[in-house]
Write a structure and sequence with these properties.
This protein is of the alpha/beta class. The chain has two domains: 208 residues, no CATH class; 231 residues, Ribonuclease H-like superfamily/Ribonuclease H (Nucleotidyltransferase, domain 5, 2-Layer Sandwich), CATH 3.30.420. It is 31% helix and 24% strand. It has a nine-stranded mixed sheet, sandwiched between helices. Strands 7-4-8-11 form a four-stranded parallel sheet. A three-stranded antiparallel sheet has the order 3-2-12. Helix 4 packs antiparallel against helix 5, helix 5 packs parallel to helix 7 and helix 11 runs parallel beside helix 12.
Length: 479
């Protein structure tokens, strides 16, 4: 260890380099481009507007909730259809109707609604144990959705206008289960996993949102909420809000993550998840194998052995081939931890028949930062190296907006590991573009690429799906 000033002065100065990557564009109706999802939709319309087989002309919308919560949620949704005014800090929402905004319609009918009655809500509250209230509430909402799904003409999309009087009993629950120890469950995650089996996409709208006063500071600005909900609705109805410009055709981007299932006797069991995205930003969720991981022996971050890694990528390749009817020309695997030798061997074995591949470990790092002269933080798109280590700012000051839309000091992503055929500059440009592919929000960009952004979200929901039930692969059921 070097402790004296003389010893430290003998260390070689690190080699530092810095470059800037231009902000990538997104594609909208007619292939027109803009760097902002909100501006592009407002100016040109969503990407699939002129793609007849993908643009939803009308979406049938149902509601589940109490009489009061259904009424307020319906009023909130309809109040947004003609547009929502913005202000100096929030973009105006252009509307959701056949003449503007997303250029599509919503249809409502009482037959697509299911009411949570007072007696049913009282039955939830009467359960003595919180875990029983949780289970009763989950079964109640599931049964209502099952009723809608089994109608002759079901809705295309269901708004879960869950009343506060229900959620106060079951929003989260912690309890001790014999043989399992402490169990934590979240109602939204459990509900998404439970109702997935009915193949109806859902959206939760809480009363604090639908009944908020115009000047309320307890919820986000109405235009921001409308942007996020209606962009997600358009995607869940089959549309493409926007697509990325510049991703190579025939490339499959894969994010790999892990979770621990609910209801297993051992806390050592993990399951791998692969999230595969094509060059248009459309993705699939694939559940891999269960495996034992001992954090006391090997650390908190799980890793796959050779056979598990090979089997997971084989699953991805099979699904890609089934969907696209051909093999990908290139596979890019994103992980948030370094590739252990056994993992790398298994991935490379599985990729032997793919012409090109890249294995990339990407993780946030708050230990190394750039300092920019002046009052603003580094630019989004700034990339720098310290010796052989590469970093990329995916948040920061955005020149295209002339703004910094975050309330914290940005941290860069570190390329912690990289093995592959593609230039690192190209890898960084793809990561920057993939941070803009979250159709669940119209925020300018996320910190992490979509391959890793959904890792926690998907894992939190997947852990609630029993091992004997096959999870649906479409992302719209996890959003």
């Amino acid at each position: 260890m070097l402790n004296t000033p003389l010893q430290r002065s003998q260390l070689p100065a690190p080699r530092i380099g810095c470059e800037y990557l231009e902000e990538p564009s997104l594609l909208f109706c007619g292939g027109r481009e803009h760097v902002s999802a909100r501006a592009g939709i407002a100016l040109f319309g969503p990407r699939s507007l002129d793609i007849q087989e993908r643009h939803p002309s009308t979406t049938r919308v149902g509601f589940i909730g109490s009489g009061a919560s259904i009424d307020s949620a319906h009023q909130w949704v309809t109040s947004c259809l003609a547009g929502v005014e913005g202000d100096s800090e929030h973009d105006a929402f252009p509307g959701y109707n056949e003449r503007q905004g997303f250029y599509t319609n919503l249809a409502f009918a009482d037959r697509w609604n299911q009411t949570l009655t007072l007696n049913e809500l009282h039955a939830v509250a009467k359960e003595r144990l919180y875990k029983d209230r949780f289970a009763t509430a989950l079964a109640l909402v599931s049964e209502k959705l099952r009723g809608l799904a089994h109608k002759d003409s079901p809705p295309d999309y269901v708004i879960l206008a869950l009343p506060d009087e229900l959620l106060k009993h079951c929003e989260t629950v912690d309890y001790v289960e014999a043989g399992q120890g402490m169990v934590h469950r979240d109602f939204r995650r459990a509900l998404k996993a439970e109702v997935m089996k009915y193949c109806l996409p859902t959206q939760i709208i809480r009363q604090r949102t639908s009944e908020a006063a115009p000047d309320s500071r307890e919820v986000d600005h109405k235009s921001r909420v409308a942007w996020n909900i209606f962009s997600s609705l358009y995607f869940k109805s089959g549309g493409i809000p926007w697509s990325p410009k510049g991703l190579e055709p025939g490339t499959c981007y894969v994010g790999i993550s892990f979770y621990r299932p609910v209801g297993v006797a051992s806390n050592l069991l993990c399951t791998s998840v692969a999230q595969a995205f094509n060059e248009y930003g459309e993705g699939l969720v694939l559940r891999g194998q269960d495996f034992v991981w001992d954090p006391r022996a090997y650390g908190r971050s799980p890793h796959l052995d050779t056979e598990q890694a090979r089997a997971l990528i084989d699953l991805v390749l099979k699904r890609y081939r089934d969907e696209v009817k051909q093999m990908p020309r290139r596979i890019v695997i994103h992980k948030s931890t370094r590739f252990w030798p056994a993992e790398k061997e298994g991935f490379q074995d599985a990729l032997a028949g793919v012409p090109y591949y890249d294995l990339v470990a990407v993780r946030p790092n708050n230990q190394v930062r750039l300092l920019r002269e002046g009052q603003y933080p580094p630019l989004r798109g700034a990339t720098f190296t310290v010796d052989d280590v590469h970093y990329l700012y995916t948040t920061g000051f955005i020149p295209a907006l002339n703004a910094y839309p975050h309330g914290h000091v940005p941290s860069p992503l570190q390329i912690a590991d990289y093995i592959g055929d593609t230039s690192l500059t190209k890898i960084l440009e793809e990561i920057l573009l993939l941070t803009k592919m979250n159709w669940n929000t119209t925020a300018f960009a996320d910190l992490r690429p979509i391959t890793l952004r959904f890792s926690q979200l998907v894992g939190d929901i997947m852990r609630e799906i029993p091992p004997d039930r096959e999870p649906l692969p479409q992302f719209k059921y996890y959003m």
